[in-house]
Amino acid sequence: MAQTFASRQLRHQRAMDNRFTQEHRTLAQNIGRIVTRSARLPDLTVPNTRERRTFIRSAVWEGVLRPYYLGRGDDPFLDGVPQSPYAALIYDGIEGATRIAVQQEIAVTRRVVKDDTVWRWLTGDRAFVLEYGSYDPFHTWVDPNGYTLSDRVWRNANEVRARIDRLLDYHISQGTSAVKMAEILEEFLTVGAGSVRTRTPYGRSGSYAARRLARTEITAAAGRATVNASLANPFVSGIQWRLSAAHKCCDVCDDYAAGGPNGDGIYPPGELPTYPAHPHDLCSLLPVTVGSPSDLVDELRAKIATGRGDNRQGLLNENWLVQAILNGVIGQIIERILS
Ligand SMILES: [Zn+2]
C-alpha cells in the first residue's frame, strides 16, 4: 500500500511536469510569433539593431513571460490565490500532493482503527472555523534563504527571461532565420531536466530552474502534509523516510533512510529531516502507526460514549484536513492538541 501512495505521488508529479512542458511549448510558440513579426523578407532574419532587439525583449517579457509566470500584478500568489498560469500549476501541484498525502495518512490509520464508531468520529464532519488567530498558509512559507513562494517565482521568471534574452541576442547576431529560431526556442523551453543537449553559448535549457521549482514545491507539499497530518493524528507516532527503488547510493538520503532513534529511518513526526532533501528527490514518506492502537481506540470509544470526545473529532476528515494544511490552520490545532 505504501508503494501505491508513493507511486501516486510520482504519477501526480509527472502529470504536472507534462503540463509544464505543454505550457512552455505554447510560450515558445508565442515568442516565436513575436520574433517572426520582427523579421524581414526574403530570408526572415531579424535586423540586428539595438532598437529591434530591445523591442523584442520587451515584447517577450511583457507579452509572454510576465503574464505567464507572474500574472497581471506583482504577486503571483495574491492572498494565496494563484494569479498566473504558472502559479496555478504550482498551486494545483501542491493541492494534489497534499491530498494524496492526506489520503495515505487516512489509509494507514484505517488499518489500525477497526472500530466503526471511532472511525466515524475521526473522519466525520469537522467545522472549518478560522478562529485560530495567525495563519501559516502555504504561500507564506519561507525557504532557508528567506524567500516566499512568490519571491521564488519571481526569481525563476527573471532567470527564464535572462536565458531567452541571451538566446535571442545570439541568434539575431548570427542571422538565424525566425523560423529556425522558433524551433530552437521550443526545444530550449521544453527540454526535460534530464536531457542532454549540445552546449550552446546561451545554455541548454531555458526553463530548467522553473521546472525544478515546480517539482520541488510539489514534493515539499507532500512532505509538509505528511508531517502536519501525522502531528495531528493520535494514531501515528512516526514517519519513515524511504528510498525509492531507483535511488543510487550514496547521498544524504541514504543517511536519512538509516537514521532516526532506532536507525530504521523512522522519526518522530516533528523531527523528520527537511523533505525533499534535494531537488529531484524520489524518496517517499510513510506514516507509522503507534505500537498499541487498540488502547487508544478503547480510550476514544469511552470518551465518545460519554459524550466527552476531545478536540480531535473530525481530524481525519479528508477535505477538512487538506484545507487545514493548505491554509496553515492545522498548526494551531496541533498546538492545542499537544498542549
Ligand atoms: Zn532522497
Helices and strands, in order, run as: HHEEHHHHHEHEEHHH
The total strand number stands at 5
Query: Taking all residues together, what is the mean pLDDT?
Result: 90
| Major sheet: arrangement of strands | 4-3-5
Major β-sheet profile: 3 strands, antiparallel
Named once each, the bound ligands are: zinc ion
Class by alpha and beta content: mainly alpha
Which of globular, elongated, flat, extended, rod-shaped describes the shape? elongated
How many separate domains?
2
Helix content: 55-70%
| Beta-strand residue fraction | 5-15%
Number of DSSP helices? Answer: 11
| pLDDT < 50 runs, ≥5 residues | none
N- to C-terminal distance: 33 Å
Multimer state: single chain
Cα Rg: 24 Å
Question: Can you describe what's shown?
Answer:
By secondary structure, the protein is mostly helical. The chain folds into 2 domains: 2-87 and 147-211, no CATH class; 98-141 and 227-327, no CATH class. Helix content is 57%, strand content 6%. The protein has 11 helices and 5 strands; from the N terminus they run ααββαααααβαββααα. It has helices spanning 2-37, 50-69, 85-110, 116-123, 149-174, 178-190, 208-232, 252-257, 293-305, 318-326, 329-338; strands spanning 77-78, 81-82, 236-242, 266-267, 284-289. The strands form 2 sheets. A 3-stranded antiparallel beta sheet has the order 4-3-5. A two-stranded antiparallel ribbon has the order 1-2. Helix 1 runs antiparallel to helix 3 and helix 2 (50-69) packs antiparallel against helix 5. The model has no long low-confidence stretch (mean pLDDT 90). Bound molecules: zinc ion.
